[in-house]
Amino acid sequence: MKKYRLKKSAMIVLILILIAVIALIWFIMSLFAVKSYSLEYNVKDYKINENYDKDNNLYYYEITDNDIRYTFISETDYQKEKKLINNIEKYESDGYVCLEVKSSSLKTRPLCSYENKQISFYLVNDELLDELNEYYDKPTEKNITYENYKIYNTYTNVLIWNYKGFNYLDGGEVEFIKLFNKDIYDIPLATKINNYLVVPDYEQEYEFNRLYLINLDDLKVDTWKMDYTISYDSYILGINDKSIYLVDKKSGIEYELVPHKKKMRILASKNKNGVIYKNGVEEKINIKSLVANNKSFTYKTNYNYVVEDNNLYLYYWNNKDKIKVSNNKIRYIVYNNEENVYYLVDNTLYKYNPLEGETKLVEYSEWEFNYQNLIFINN
After folding, report:
1. Which of 46, 174, 220, 274 is buried most deeply by CB count within 10 Å?
2. Up-side HSE of residue 310: CA atoms within 13 Å toward CB?
3. What b-and-e string marks burial along 221-230, b requiring 16 or more CB atoms within 10 Å of the CB?
4. Closest by Cα among 109, 50, 43, 57 to 81
5. Contacts of 320 (CB under 8 A, 6+ apart)
6. Cβ contact 239:230 at 8 Å
């Protein structure tokens, strides 16, 4: 039998055809691939800046009216169409202004302002709240008394330090989780990570080599005897994934602790570089810098809450336009997780998110004097 071989020129032609086919397929796929974009358009007299961020799968909007800029985000799946806002209706009363955004794809509360500054919809006057009452969606306030607590909302599970352990408030029920036999007033190194609350054995003096692990799924307490001894002159640098990062300032060591595996390791000591996360990205940092200054991880989030002059503000995505969300005088942000933020007003714990507005949760007289790192949210 004869053996046939392709000539060199024919082989080159076939390779070129294959490359062309692959390039064509890639080009067609790129046409239909989801891409981030930014565009501007007008609806009536309103200038709209529409942005889609494919990495975070969200839409970010800026709407300008009479030099006032209103911002909001929508965590909506990518839409093939663009220019998603169809209409805007304006409502005004005693200096308050609200824009009602009409869209078949987006959902948002009315965007409101007062004295040329954007505010939460829930801060407008009663007349506008009545006119736009279809958007009003606040939980019903309860009034439950348990020992020294007044519980106003039972949808949020809260752990409150009670000197020997935690009172766990869950749906109106309270369960005590005991850790110590003597009173411990401060627990600055206690850390919540995923479904665990991790607390050093504060009955050990000066330093510790034992941690209590509270499983928040079943409230069972486990004990972890660690491989190293850590000074109380330490601070929590932050958490990432399933790890806690702790800096022992006295020993000049950065540790990584993995509670669910009961494992730990030394990341940095002496002149070795340690680890810090900035907006979720790992960076190297000299251990001397970690010891000399109390650093902390920063986290990339679509909802950013800040307290300035005791006022609570929200800004979205990577934009710095602030929205006032509470008329209360804020003492301290306890915890924030995406759209939810928890904070203290005098001796009362509150929660805010853009959908429900501000909600009163728990009042406890002890918070008048002692509150930092003594409240943990399990939601």
Report:
1. 274
2. 8
3. eeebebeeeb
4. 50
5. none
6. no
